[in-house]
Design a protein that fits this description.
Largest sheet: 8 strands, mixed
Strand content: 15-25%
Structural class: alpha/beta
Shape: globular
CATH topology: Rossmann fold
Number of domains: 1
Number of strands: 10
CATH superfamily: Alpha/Beta hydrolase fold, catalytic domain
CATH architecture: 3-Layer(aba) Sandwich
Length: 299
Amino acid sequence: MKNIWHWKNHRIAWNLEDENNGYPIATVLIHGFGASKDHWRFNQKAISWLGPCYAIDLIGFGESSQPVAQLSYERQTQCSFHYCFDEWSQQVIDFCDEIVQKPVLLVGNSIGAVIALNASEKINQLCKGVVLINCAQRTMDDKRLAEQSLFMRLMRPVIKTLVRQRYLSERIFKNAASPNFIEKILKIAYPSGRNIDKYLINSLWTPTQRKGAPEAFRGFINLFDDHLAPDLLKELKVPVYLIWGDKDTWEPITEARKWFETFECVKSLDVIPNAGHCPHDEMPEKVNPILKRIIQEAI
């Protein structure tokens, strides 16, 4: 059932599946860039038998508000929003405090996984664990500049200057916001081709037709200096569980294996063979049993 929560003058859309409210913890699902609460269409109902399961639309996506993007150097207004991991994390933290009101397991895909990590540190004892599904590695962040080619390092100032311009970001967004383009991207993200259907394409395309959608895009593509997952994992006390599609060309599994070997908080790494960036939607029959196991371990 869709609900609306009012947060900092914004409307936040969220869903709840509540087949078993007797469990002591709830699960909160956090989508990735361009997606929404509907991206958990094959997961939310299935895992709600182990306790209430919430899916939330981040600011800028799905059916939540899409306010004007305020970049770090721009003046803040009552209608603007700084699209960044701290603000999205605060949205999740306040949602858990005001709506969920019980200990939580945070589950995030892509940038949603970084948000889950960042939020878990601040939720502290009320967070019983974090599940990272193909967590965004953010290779274009300024802090990873040394890993880029000499050409990319030289071009970085030019790229940053260009994408700040609304006329350019809106043009890029307009070209990308079409069902045909979305389907092409999905075929990269879902290498097996499974579950790329009209429902999925429409759930990604529909929010792009709203008036504020280009602003959310502008805010995101200007995130050049923000949180990186390894930095958050270093000091984290909350148990972390990794689920990874091994055919993800955007977020290679080699990094996940490194995290599993390096950080004490990472308790497990479950690899989904032949799956890509969104294994929870591409192969839910393989991911859901893992999520159920983790929920049971967290209780």
